[in-house]
From TrEMBL:
Location of the Peptidase M20 dimerisation domain: 155-248
GO MF entries: acetylornithine deacetylase activity
Keywords in alphabetical order: Hydrolase, Metal-binding
Annotated source species: Mucilaginibacter pedocola
Matching Pfam families: M20_dimer (PF07687)
Protein name from the UniProt record: Peptidase M20 dimerisation domain-containing protein
Top-level taxonomic group: Bacteria
Organism taxonomic ancestry: Bacteria, Pseudomonadati, Bacteroidota, Sphingobacteriia, Sphingobacteriales
Length: 350
């Protein structure tokens, strides 16, 4: 069965990376596999066949890039699939789905499994949890599929996005009139690029701030009256959000608004049954310098997935097909071994 799951996963990954309507592709594939699917917008989920509401639920969560195929269809070269979103999310999605299919018909599980394929679009913000029979799913644990080279990310950074606006005054540039908002923005942008927060966590990277979008001006000869830019802040447990914002406001002049979609720093104890299960099958732990759904799920969660984290969002994004096979086997073993740990050591599940 493992070979069939791998071949199906590879076929699905290629289809996702080459289709401009990946949600339709994912749902059709799951239905063809005999899975009973649910859909809300472009988020798709499925519960195991023998779901029992009296049992705890483990969420298998992955996302896909809805815009990947609009850039360029994926291609297979030298044992690697190339295309936007295939390493960042796509590989984890098809591998987690394969593991879910492996357990879908089993009736002796002490927990429910819910697989969720969530759409990721910058304009949509953070995807939300599945709604089943009018109730939002509240999992007891989650495996979040993102590229970690199949290391267990037991801690990760939080993530904030700030919308900033520097104001000036319009005028005719040829007569040196007006007050150029770009120059005001540059002072603040330089501060974001160079400022270092003093406190550092022993096991997490320091806070990092990056200006990733800038927009100003609209006509020749006109001094821009406004310059807007966005700042991504990756933060650890040393500072609260209020403390970070207070420091920024104290040192900058621009107007600042915090977006609602916030991912908080996440940690998972090394004695948690899933971490212990991973260690018992030879997996290593790591700390992720990025953020994921672990930061907003508000349940214990483990980030682990195939692919090189450094290859994420790169122009030459790719994933080796053999990594998909390896990930499927590890996910299946991780769930199997965790099953034993949850039964034998339930007090460590919190």
């Amino acid at each position: 069965m493992a070979d069939i799951l791998y071949e199906d996963a590879l076929q699905l990954l290629q289809a996702i990376g080459s289709n401009t309507a990946p949600a339709d592709v994912i749902m059709a594939f799951m239905n063809d596999c005999g899975l009973s699917t649910h859909r809300q917008g472009n988020n798709i989920w499925c519960l195991n066949r023998a779901c029992d509401t009296t049992k705890p639920t483990i969420l298998l969560y992955a996302h896909y890039n809805a815009l990947a195929a609009e850039t360029e269809a994926c291609r297979l070269m030298n044992g690697e699939l190339w295309g936007q979103g295939l390493n960042y999310g796509g590989g984890s999605l098809v591998a987690l789905m394969a593991a879910f299919r492996y357990y879908y018909h089993k009736r002796d599980l002490p927990y429910n499994l819910c697989f969720c394929a969530a759409e990721e679009r910058e304009s949509h913000g953070v995807p939300r949890l599945p709604v089943i029979q009018g109730q939002t799913l509240k999992p007891d644990f989650a495996i979040v599929g993102e590229p970690t080279d199949m290391q267990m990310a037991i801690a990760e950074m939080g993530h904030l996005v700030l919308d900033c606006v520097a104001n000036g005054k319009a005028g005719h540039a040829g007569r040196s009139e007006g007050d150029n908002a770009i120059y005001h923005a540059l002072r603040d942008i330089n501060w974001f690029a160079t400022y270092e927060f003093n406190k550092c966590a022993a096991f997490m990277p320091p806070i990092r701030m990056a200006v990733l979008q800038v927009n100003a001006g609209g006509a020749n000869d006109t001094t821009p009256a406004e310059c807007s830019f966005t700042v991504d802040v990756y933060y650890n447990t040393c500072y609260s959000i209020d403390e970070i914002l207070a420091t920024i406001v104290l040192n900058t002049r621009c107007g600042i608004s915090l977006r609602e979609d916030i991912s908080r720093p996440a940690e998972l104890s090394r004695v948690h049954p899933f971490v212990q299960a991973g260690l018992s099958i030879g997996l290593e732990t790591c700390v992720s310098p990025t953020s994921s759904a672990c930061g907003w799920l508000q349940v214990p969660a483990l980030k682990i997935g195939p692919g090189d984290p450094a290859c994420t969002r790169c122009a030459d994004e790719r994933i080796a097909v053999l990594e998909i096979r390896r990930a499927i086997n590890i996910y299946i073993k991780l769930l199997e071994r965790s099953l034993s740990n949850l039964i034998n050591k339930p007090e460590r599940a919190a």
